[in-house]
From TrEMBL:
InterPro entries: DUF1468. The chain crosses the membrane at residues 12-34, 49-71, 92-116, 128-146. Signal peptide: none annotated. This is DUF1468 domain-containing protein. It comes from Sinorhizobium fredii (strain NBRC 101917 / NGR234). Pfam families: TctB. It comes from the Bacteria. The keyword Membrane applies. Residues 17-154 form the DUF1468 domain. Keywords: Membrane, Plasmid, Transmembrane, Transmembrane helix.
Amino acid sequence: MSENSANGISRFAVELGVAALTGAFGVAVCWGSLDIGAGWTEMGPDGGYFPFYIGLLIVFGSLVNIAQAFLKHRDTGEVFIDAGRAKVVASFLLPLVAFGAIAAWLGLYVGTALYIAATMLFQGRYKWWIALPSGLGVSAAFFLIFEIGFQVPLLKGPVEAWFGIY
């Protein structure tokens, strides 16, 4: 390992992690397919036949990626992401995770308004009197476009119920 690998996450670790995640996804697909039947009957394939083999292909691809990681990146010490860049990625990823949690709890429109306003305020360094109306405006535009224009209801929470929007 080189000195650079101590300053960030190694490419080898990321390759193994992603291959393990995709492998676990493939195993989950296979497991779920077995629950609904992955065999062949006199009427043809069961409902899980095709997904089972897709899951096997995903597991196989993950195993190939693990082998390639060991062959190509194990002893190189190559850095995938350093601490400085990880902070920049986290500054966008963590608010998105918070948006998902808030949207699931308070509804998509409230979550969108808070996310837009907070992103403009903290990352864009806008003043609050610009950020807050912008967040509310985007949320209102989404409501007009989806709920009224396309008549596609989006996830609503207690705030919309309080206003009688359902």
